[in-house]
Specification:
Structural Genomics Hypothetical 15.5 Kd Protein In mrcA-pckA Intergenic Region, Chain A, Alpha-Beta Plaits, about 240 residues, single chain, alpha+beta, nine-stranded mixed beta sheet, four-stranded antiparallel beta sheet, binds uracil, elongated, 3 domains
């Protein structure tokens, strides 16, 4: 069974920085299998009973967070100039999280953060055609003709046309229309470029879902929560 250092175990589970948890350990606050362990490098099994100040700390190898990304932050783990989506996550969270795919700086909505590289790969693989649904406000005239063009797949200036996309016009207006669009790929600026290709301009974009995962509307922009076990199981299917 996998073993890891006690200080890493506690830091991964958000008990503090590496030096803070070392201090907890050295002061005798941490027990493994009921015995006080004072050495941070002690190797602990992932199923061992670890307690801090009497409270059980269970190790989770993987973390899955649903973030309602606000506008104005970039989908990266670090950036020299811009605030990143990881800057929105509490410092006590684990340090190996990354965003699954990217939303533009001015796009908001569902973004999954995890440290599960295999699941991220599955969700992002172009071969898997995972549906991504967006709500958008679009300047320009949209009619049934654009619905058909999107359904066939369209040339947005790449080597290949896009895969078929589902366009639903919620509210067509002479100025700004409200739509939902579901795409199967994740090309750079894909939704914006699809609308540009039909002479329109996206003025607001929000991701509503990715595969089976639906943005929890209780989350306000900038807020996040862990996925439920059902949500994680559905995503893995
Ligand atoms: N398509 C875009 O153009 N931007 C996004 O952020 C996501 C999809």
């Amino acid at each position: 069974m996998k073993e890891i250092r006690l200080d890493k175990y506690l830091a991964d589970m958000g008990l503090g920085t590496r030096s803070q948890v070392k201090s907890l350990i050295r002061k005798g606050h941490v027990r493994v299998e009921e015995k006080i362990v004072k050495s941070p490098e002690y190797k602990v099994g992932l199923r061992d009973e670890v307690t801090v100040g009497g409270n059980r700390v269970t190790y989770k190898s993987y973390e899955y967070l649903m973030l309602h990304k606000p506008r104005g932050v970039v989908s990266a783990t670090e950036d020299k100039k811009e605030r990143t989506v990881l800057d929105l996550i509490a410092e006590t969270s684990r340090k190996d999280l990354f965003p699954v795919g990217r939303l533009d700086k001015d796009t908001e909505g569902l973004l999954l953060l995890t440290n599960d590289g295999a699941l991220a790969h599955e969700l992002l693989s172009p071969k898997k055609h995972v549906d991504k649904k967006y709500f958008a406000k679009v300047r320009g005239i949209l009619t049934e003709s654009e619905v058909q063009i999107f359904a066939r797949g369209l040339d947005i200036g790449d080597d290949k046309p896009t895969l078929p996309a589902k366009l639903k016009i919620l509210n067509a207006d002479a100025d700004i229309s409200e739509i939902e669009v579901t795409i199967q790929e994740g090309r750079f600026h894909q939704v914006k470029r699809m609308f540009e290709a039909v002479g329109c301009r996206v003025v607001y974009l929000k991701r509503l879902s990715m595969g089976s995962l639906i943005l929890d509307e209780k989350l306000r922009p900038g807020e996040y929560r862990s996925l439920t076990e059902e949500e994680t199981a559905e995503l893995r299917k």
